[in-house]
Write a structure and sequence with these properties.
Radius of gyration of chain A: 18 Å
Strand content of chain A: 15-25%
Largest interface: A-B, 22 and 26 residues
Distance between the termini of chain A: 54 Å
Number of helices of chain A: 7
Strand order of the largest sheet of chain A: 2-3
Helix content of chain A: 25-40%
CATH superfamily of the largest domain in chain B: ATPase, nucleotide binding domain
Number of helices of chain B: 11
CATH class of the largest domain in chain B: Alpha Beta
Largest sheet of chain A: 2 strands, antiparallel
Structural class of chain A: alpha+beta
Number of domains of chain A: 2
Shape of chain B: globular
Structural class of chain B: alpha+beta
Number of strands of chain A: 5
CATH topology of the largest domain in chain B: Nucleotidyltransferase, domain 5
Number of strands of chain B: 28
Distance between the termini of chain B: 21 Å
Strand content of chain B: 25-35%
Radius of gyration of chain B: 24 Å
Number of domains of chain B: 3
Oligomer: heterodimer
Helix content of chain B: 25-40%
Largest sheet of chain B: 7 strands, mixed
Order of helices and strands of chain A: EHHHEEEHHEHH
Chain lengths: 188, 480
């Protein structure tokens, strides 16, 4: 029989005190409960959403999302997995009620002119564009859309939903706007 | 006075003195190594050792009133003790008596002060505790331990002059208590241990298995089925000794007679053939050859990369080993039996004693960190620096235990392998810090300790790693 378990180190070397304030310590923190405790120390009183985007790496953000139970079935997602260059939270419902392909609808307030330019560039439909943009990667809320804003219903994957569920509609719009600008920049 | 090396063996102990080109060997009165047997007179506290003790061990054991202590090396760490009228003897005391006997022999042969300082050879993986007991025993015998060296590596040092043009060499040292295999790389005047492994399937265990076979043969001839455990202890001990003698005799004869005056109430006599014995000894030989093969692999080599294999030690004289090595395409034609197998280890240790401190670590030990990288604790090429060092660690996840994993890395690019691991209880993430201390010891072990600040140094967890690989620089004088 082959062993299917292994030992995992859970320590890092520290020198300065308080060590948790040093920039070399932060990237190593892992696990939702540890990350939330660290954020409480690092940014006391800050909103979780702000702190998550300000201080955590995509991988750590996925860690936080990972241990958030599903709204529908209460199960916890499987964990962060690397898909291409991005970290996603893989979800497999233990009760079979929530399919992996299950999408959740949210309404985004988007800069319609910017979206139209992006649609021309991507030669695709709005739904696919949203997936292209969020798949490209997203970080914290940036500036809110300045141009003509219209509400656009979008379908978020489970991974996107878990990562973004704590945002208000306005914050979500800002996250998408920043991600769209970044995607436009990357695609000429 | 020259430089001494001591091979403190399970069955025999020997010392060799090297003084320039002159080599002196110190053992018993017959020019053989000194048997590692001590007999204590329970009434008078008198100690008898060496060949005299070996020759009289059966007689005195049967007479009663004596404690016969053999293979003391096997129980250096144990809590055993032997009581005589005036005192209690620990394993350290018994080992000291063996070493005193050796020093007395050197004095009788003209070394005025006896042996005062020596490099000791030890089996692969001898624990830090056992090394410490051996060092204390030597001190009781007025011998200072300059350093330790693995027996199989010491044996190679003895042959360095002849094999200095080789690149990779394996040493197979099969004695009474252990089988030690070293795979070494020679770079100029330096030899590096690439891998060393050991096992305790050696002469003593084979003797016991052979004794069991002889017991069964006796019972069959009598038509009885008495278990060996039901035979009186003295008869059983005698059977083991006769079986050991028969095993040695089978190396030169096809068949050996074993006669016992008293065995379970009556005389016994059996004829032991090589064929009978092969059934018992064969698996030992197979395991020994497998260990040789696996150590070569562990060194990152294959058998074809070996230029030479030196076969040494009392158990290596077993006829089956020669037969099976010769029939094994991996090793056939590549091995050679040592010229003076009973002295070579001590001789190599004495050569190293001539160039004290000329060794360095042949591997890096690193603390495995949470991100998969290693923090180097001791580095390959580092001279033996016994200064204690320390560092602070923090947990990176919500846990009540810090998992400390120490890996070893021999060459650049070779994957790390685990040396040791342990856990230290903590208060939890952000609430505690772990203080780690580590050092190379003069006993050539790596000691690492850790405690959490919250629990304090009184709750320190300590581990020692005693299978470190070293590189030895041999001076030009040793190479010529």
């Amino acid at each position: 029989m082959r062993a299917n378990v292994g030992r995992r180190s859970n320590v890092t070397v520290v020198s300065d005190n308080p060590y948790w304030e040093t920039p070399t310590f932060a990237p190593h923190v892992r696990g939702r409960s540890a990350l939330l405790r660290w954020l409480e120390k690092k940014a006391p009183g800050a909103s979780l959403t702000d702190a998550v985007y300000r201080y955590l790496s995509p991988r750590q953000r996925a860690d936080v999302a990972w241990e958030t139970p599903c709204d529908t079935c209460g199960a916890r997602p499987e964990g962060p997995v690397l898909k291409g260059a991005t970290v996603e939270v893989e979800f497999r419902c233990p009760q079979g009620t929530c399919k992996a392909s299950h999408h959740t609808a949210r309404t985004l307030l988007v800069d319609i002119d910017l979206v139209n330019r992006a649609l021309l560039r991507a030669r695709t439909d709005p739904s696919t564009l949203v997936q292209l943009v969020l798949g490209h990667g997203f970080s914290g809320p940036g500036e809110r859309p300045r141009g003509r804003s219209v509400p656009l219903p979008v379908r978020l994957t489970r991974s996107q939903y878990l990562a973004l569920k704590h945002h208000t509609d306005a914050e979500l719009a800002a996250v998408f706007h920043a991600a769209l600008l970044s995607w436009m920049k990357a695609h000429g | 006075m020259g430089y001494f090396g001591i091979d403190f063996g399970t069955t025999n102990t020997s010392a060799v003195e090297v003084d320039g080109r002159a080599v002196q060997r110190y053992g018993d009165e017959q020019g053989k190594p000194l048997p590692s047997v001590i007999i204590l007179n329970q009434a008078t506290d008198e100690v008898v050792g060496g060949r005299q003790a070996w020759n009289r061990r059966l007689e005195l054991q049967q007479l009663g009133g004596f404690e016969v202590v053999g293979s003391i090396k096997r129980c250096l760490e144990s809590d055993r003790h032997w009581v005589t009228a005036g005192r209690s003897w620990t394993p350290r005391d018994i080992a000291a008596e063996v070493l005193k006997q050796l020093s007395v022999r050197a004095r009788q042969r003209g070394v005025a002060a006896g042996i005062r300082k020596a490099t000791f050879s030890i089996p692969v993986g001898l624990s830090a505790r056992a090394r410490s007991v051996l060092r204390e025993a030597a001190a009781l015998a007025d011998i200072e331990v300059s350093s330790f060296v693995v027996e199989s590596t010491a044996a190679f040092v003895r042959y360095f002059r002849d094999l200095r043009n080789s690149r990779h060499v394996a040493v197979f040292d099969w004695g009474g208590g252990t089988l030690d295999v070293s795979v070494l790389r020679i770079e100029g005047l330096t030899i590096f241990e690439l891998a060393k492994e050991g096992m305790s399937d050696a002469g003593d265990v084979m003797d016991q298995e052979l004794a069991l076979l002889v017991h069964k043969m006796i019972m069959e001839s009598r038509g009885e089925n008495l278990a060996i455990e039901e035979v009186p202890t003295k008869d059983r001990d005698q059977l083991i000794i006769r079986s050991e003698m028969a095993k040695c005799a089978l190396s030169s004869e096809e068949q050996v007679s074993i006669g016992l005056e008293h065995y379970a109430g009556q005389p016994a006599h059996v004829e032991l053939t090589r064929r009978n014995a092969a059934g018992v000894l064969g698996p030992f030989v197979d395991r020994a050859i497998n260990l040789l093969a696996s150590t070569v692999v562990q060194a990152g080599l294959n058998a074809d990369s070996l230029d030479d294999i030196i076969v040494i030690g009392g158990s290596s004289q077993l006829w089956m080993l020669d037969e099976r090595l010769a029939a094994d395409p991996r090793f056939a034609g590549r091995y050679k039996l040592a010229e003076r197998p009973e002295w070579d280890v001590a001789h190599g240790a004495a050569i190293l004693e001539q160039t004290p401190g000329n060794y360095e670590l042949a591997e890096t030990l690193g603390l495995h960190l949470c991100d998969g990288t290693h923090f180097e604790l001791v580095r390959r090429g580092q001279a033996l620096d016994t200064t204690p060092r320390s560092l602070s660690l923090a947990l990176v996840e919500d846990s009540r235990e810090a998992n400390l994993i120490i890996d070893r890395m021999t060459d650049l690019g070779s994957p790390p392998t685990n040396a040791l691991h342990f856990s230290v209880p903590t208060l939890g993430f952000l609430d505690d810090e772990i203080r780690l201390s580590y050092e190379l010891t003069k006993d050539l072990t790596f000691r690492i300790s850790a405690y959490s600040r919250s629990r304090g140094p009184a709750k320190t967890e300590t581990r020692e790693f005693s299978n470190l690989r070293f590189g030895y620089h041999l001076g030009n004088a040793n190479a010529r």
